[in-house]
């Protein structure tokens, strides 16, 4: 139970903030080795601790003995020493006169072994301080008197730690015979009620036999020092009129001693304390504490199993991070419940989330805090043997509140539910006890530092104020700490502040290491700690100044003769008493101050200046220097607008130059538009848009000297909207849109991210700006969201998409803000590598291959628009348009034009034959692809290049056919046909039968070209008249008919003197044939 005099948590807070800024940890773990030489003449257990209290080990050592040691798991890139103390009292707490020693220092930079040399244990001599009294206050309690004991802390500059001087206490009690209960006089029944109370820095001893009328005197002892005895002190009566009552459940043990319960408010000096004792407790045990003042309290209790009146090993306690908060405000409090469970030790793992800014920029990191405090047993060594995101083994060091270590894991976020295994060795055990601890949560519930920040007027009673977290844990307290921003030495801290507190005054608890110093830059953090010990720290930087200080200037750039307004503090109101200089090529160049107030100087830029900082000296004090540079040249400007996520214009938004708040403007109500001039003339800058209720929006990096007008708005998002993206508090986020040069969103683009810190980030895409999904940007908005960026990182964002060229955009990442910008893209120039086929008819399909076809706007053939389909970035399907001419295809995209090789348009020439005769039509020019025979469709058509002339010739069969003429595309009656292929053409060739034979059937006459055809048509009694020609057989008359074959006629079938000749043989196998003027050969 912590009641008085114990600096619980001080080094934990100091170390954590220091290492957050200066430590770069990795997956490696170094080992520190050396020797301990015991020259103290004493024996016992020696505890070794690395200089940051995170790592350490212990072992027993005899007087005069020298033993080696190793400390494993040292992960911080830092300068280390190892100090050791011999625990003569056996309490596991270092006292000022315990034998001690310290090693030489080593710089740890990698995962190797570093030898720190030999540590020699020697006996210090630290006397009690001159005005020290070991008894602070005897406090009246229900059923006992609580003696508030003072340990008389000694601060060692060599070790940068505080140690209690007192090692044991003796207590005397007497009955007060004074008529004034506030004064001890006429004492009787003086009795030494307790001797040798070991000082484990527990702060109190309970006298269960004490009375309100008792007086007490305490003697403190320390090795080798003169003892100090306090004066007699009466029991302080209860200070309040309220009561706190409830029930405590005791698990795992049968009580063998009294139960002591107290409520403590340590936010002031002195702390408020009220307590009660239950002599014979059971479980569950009711309690009532009376005399309680209004305040916010922690409930503490311990079950004094060995009945010695003080908390030590063997007793049962709540544990530091298992405390219940009790608020007393004008009435009694009932129904308080708490549980204590008997265990060998209280082992836990807590997470610390650190964010904010230092002199070196923003940061957001995490650490793991392993804490092991003995309860029923006394731990002597603790080793972390396994767990995620750490290098094991880790030897945990002992400090004033037990074994505790802070393992920094940088930006690696711990995972709730992750388990870590420990080996705890207890005093007297021969082997370690395996123990598992589990991460309960990671706190993102940051308070917001309000004041002080930046340059402020020096005030020794500086007020530190903050805003409560928007989503706090169920139960929490605040801790505020102030440290030097340069060497990180802690100046002041105050812890266990109730959640209702949102401001404190410097050193209100009288525990500061010194006063605030003027003109020294400091950093202060406010942390939120939940009931399990997990914490969220947020830090900012401030400088309390007595001389001049520059907060900003406007404009940020300009030329000779430009009027510049310098804003700040503590300027002389007499212009001549202020000296303002600009950077120059030959040194500083003085400017003329034309007007002066305490907070603003008006100056004119002199000739000969160069880009650089501005310096101010006022009334001989200074000089103060600006944090940003005045850039020489034409100042830049930016005109834009601000909207919310629903695209509603936002007025009243402050838009300012990042790092120089003097250059600022406000967006207009109704339109959300703004125009900001006076921006840097060169270099780069960013703009910040801020409005209450929204997270700040920070622009991408902008080149100085540009006059920019944009229609792409700043988008302000609420914290809830950003939370929906899975952004952890303390991290940055970028939202960017991928657009073309006209501002149109580009779909299908994939983000490329380059981190200046070498981090790996993941881009997400959203078609509605709310829900993530897809693997590339949506054509709806082109949106990319990159969450959980490391503060202070320089992120370069680009995009890729086949057929497009993109230009990167850079961002400076800030925590608790949204980086916004655009990635501009332009389609790449298309190219055509081929067409297939290379010729074709109107309406046919042509495939164009090449690259960068995604933004195709049109395709033409010889200047005529063609319908097309973009199949991919490398292929287009085109339909040859009607009426098209031979020429090149031209693909027109947003990136330009690309032409193909020659495409030949084809026209079809179709030939048919008709008539009673037979023959063949062939093409003789430009080729012979057409060879169309009567009665066949084969080779009767062909495609020819548009515009070419095709020559056709007709050849009748020599079996009695003649060519009768052309029709269609040709109309000649004889000769060849020439067709110009300016369109599809059709030609008909007519062949007629030559009348070589005539079949006489009564009054009917039919001509035939062949004897076989005439015979086939004849019936009995018919006459076949044949011209005087040669007919080639053989002939087979095999029908059951009787006919007359009469020959020797001319073309008009007039008889002649000639004969018809049948060649090749003749057979009459059926029927009969009568021949006349027919010769057989």
From TrEMBL:
What range(s) does the Bacterial repeat domain occupy?
A: 933-993
Checking Gene3D superfamilies in the record gives: Carboxypeptidase-like, regulatory domain, Immunoglobulins
The chain positions of domain IPT/TIG read: 548-631, 830-892
A Pfam family annotated for this chain is: TIG
The protein's name is IPT/TIG domain protein
């Amino acid at each position: 139970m912590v009641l008085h005099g114990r600096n619980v948590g001080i080094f934990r807070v100091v170390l954590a903030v220091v290492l957050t800024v200066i430590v770069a940890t990795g997956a490696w773990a170094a080992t520190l080795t050396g020797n301990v030489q015991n020259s103290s003449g004493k024996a016992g257990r020696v505890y070794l601790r690395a200089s940051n209290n995170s790592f350490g080990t212990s072992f027993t050592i005899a007087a005069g003995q020298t033993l080696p040691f190793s400390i494993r798991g040292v992960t911080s890139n830092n300068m280390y020493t190892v100090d050791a103390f011999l625990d003569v009292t056996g309490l596991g707490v270092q006292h000022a006169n315990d034998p001690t020693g310290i090693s030489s220092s080593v710089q740890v930079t990698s995962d190797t072994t570093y030898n720190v040399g030999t540590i020699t244990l020697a006996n210090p001599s630290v006397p009690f301080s001159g005005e020290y009294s070991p008894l602070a206050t005897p406090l009246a309690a229900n059923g006992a008197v609580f003696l508030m004991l003072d340990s008389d802390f000694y601060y060692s500059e060599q070790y940068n730690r505080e140690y209690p001087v007192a090692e044991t206490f003796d207590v005397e009690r007497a009955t007060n015979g004074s008529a004034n209960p506030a004064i001890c006089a006429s004492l009787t029944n003086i009795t030494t009620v307790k001797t040798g109370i070991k000082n484990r820095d527990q702060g109190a001893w309970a006298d269960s036999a004490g009375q309100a009328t008792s007086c007490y005197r305490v003697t403190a002892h320390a090795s080798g020092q003169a003892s100090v005895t306090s004066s007699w002190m009466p029991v302080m009566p209860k200070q309040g009129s309220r009561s706190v009552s409830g029930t405590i459940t005791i698990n795992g043990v049968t009580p063998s001693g009294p139960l002591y319960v107290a409520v403590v408010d340590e936010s002031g000096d002195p702390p408020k304390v009220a307590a009660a004792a239950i002599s014979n407790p059971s479980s569950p045990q009711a309690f009532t504490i009376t005399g309680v003042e209004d305040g916010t309290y922690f409930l503490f209790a311990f079950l004094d199993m060995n009945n010695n009146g003080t908390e030590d090993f063997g007793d049962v306690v709540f544990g530091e991070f298992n405390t219940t908060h009790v608020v007393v405000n004008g009435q009694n409090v009932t129904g308080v419940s708490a549980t204590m469970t008997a265990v060998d030790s209280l082992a836990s793992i807590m997470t610390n989330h650190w964010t904010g800014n230092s002199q070196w920029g923003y940061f957001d990191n995490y650490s793991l805090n392993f804490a092991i405090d003995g309860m029923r047993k006394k731990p002597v060594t603790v080793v972390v043997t396994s767990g995620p995101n750490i290098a094991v083994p880790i030897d945990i060091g002992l400090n004033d509140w037990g074994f505790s270590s802070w393992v920094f894991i940088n930006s690696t976020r711990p995972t709730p539910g992750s388990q870590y295994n420990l080996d705890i060795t207890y005093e007297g055990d021969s082997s370690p006890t395996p123990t598992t601890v589990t991460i309960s949560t990671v706190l993102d519930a940051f308070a917001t530092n309000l004041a002080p920040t930046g340059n402020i007027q020096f005030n020794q009673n500086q007020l530190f104020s903050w805003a409560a977290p928007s989503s706090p844990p169920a139960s929490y307290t605040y801790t505020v700490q102030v440290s030097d921003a340069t060497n990180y030495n802690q100046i002041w801290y105050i812890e266990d502040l109730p959640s209702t507190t949102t401001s404190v005054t410097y050193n209100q608890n009288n525990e500061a290491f010194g006063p605030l110093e003027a003109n020294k830059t400091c950093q202060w953090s406010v942390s939120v700690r939940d009931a399990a010990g997990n914490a969220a720290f947020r830090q900012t930087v401030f400088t309390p100044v007595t001389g001049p200080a520059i907060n900003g200037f406007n404009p940020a750039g300009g030329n000779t003769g430009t009027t510049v307004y310098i804003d700040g503090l503590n300027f002389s109101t007499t212009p001549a008493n202020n000296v303002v200089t600009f950077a120059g090529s030959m040194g500083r160049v003085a400017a003329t101050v034309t007007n002066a107030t305490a907070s603003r100087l008006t100056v004119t830029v002199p000739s000969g200046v160069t880009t650089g900082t501005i310096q101010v000296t006022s009334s001989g004090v200074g000089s103060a220097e600006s944090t940003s540079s005045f850039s020489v040249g034409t100042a830049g400007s930016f005109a834009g607008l601000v909207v919310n996520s629903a695209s509603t214009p936002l007025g009243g938004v402050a838009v300012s130059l990042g790092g120089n708040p003097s250059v600022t403007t406000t967006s207009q109500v109704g339109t959300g538009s703004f125009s900001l001039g006076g921006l840097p003339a060169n270099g780069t800058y960013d703009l910040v848009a801020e409005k209450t209720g929204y997270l700040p929006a920070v622009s991408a990096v902008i080149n100085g000297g540009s006059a920019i007008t944009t229609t792409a708005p700043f988008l302000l998002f609420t914290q809830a909207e950003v939370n929906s993206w899975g952004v952890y508090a303390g991290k940055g986020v970028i939202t960017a849109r991928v657009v073309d040069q006209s501002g149109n969103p580009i779909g299908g683009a994939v983000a490329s991210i380059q981190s200046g810190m070498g981090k790996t980030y993941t881009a997400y895409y959203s078609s509605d700006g709310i829900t993530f999904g897809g693997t590339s940007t949506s054509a709806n908005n082109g949106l990319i969201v990159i969450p959980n960026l490391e503060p202070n990182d320089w992120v370069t964002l680009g995009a890729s998409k086949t057929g497009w060229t993109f230009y990167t955009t850079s961002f400076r990442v800030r925590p608790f803000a949204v980086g916004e910008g655009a990635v501009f893209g332009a389609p790449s120039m298309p190219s055509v590598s081929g067409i297939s086929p290379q010729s074709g008819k109107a309406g046919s399909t042509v495939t164009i291959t090449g690259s960068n076809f995604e933004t195709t706007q049109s395709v033409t053939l010889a200047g005529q628009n063609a319908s097309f389909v973009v199949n991919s970035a490398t292929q287009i399907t085109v339909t040859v348009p009607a009426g098209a001419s031979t020429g090149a295809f031209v693909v027109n995209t947003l990136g330009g034009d690309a032409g193909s090789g020659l495409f030949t348009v084809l026209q079809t020439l179709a030939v048919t034959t008709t008539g009673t005769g037979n023959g063949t039509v062939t093409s003789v020019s430009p080729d012979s692809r057409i060879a169309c025979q009567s009665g066949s469709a084969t080779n009767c058509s062909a495609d020819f290049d548009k515009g070419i002339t095709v020559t056709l010739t007709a050849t009748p069969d020599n079996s009695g056919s003649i060519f009768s003429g052309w029709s269609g595309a040709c109309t000649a009656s004889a000769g060849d046909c020439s067709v110009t292929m300016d369109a599809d053409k059709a030609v008909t060739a007519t062949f007629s039968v030559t009348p070589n034979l005539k079949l006489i059937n009564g009054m009917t006459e039919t001509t035939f070209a062949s004897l076989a055809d005439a015979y086939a048509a004849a019936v009995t009694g018919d006459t076949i008249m044949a011209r005087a020609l040669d007919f080639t057989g053989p002939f087979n008359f095999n029908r059951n008919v009787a006919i007359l074959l009469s020959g020797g006629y001319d073309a008009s079938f007039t008889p002649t003197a000639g004969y018809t000749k049948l060649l090749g043989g003749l057979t009459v196998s059926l029927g009969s044939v009568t021949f006349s003027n027919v010769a057989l050969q």
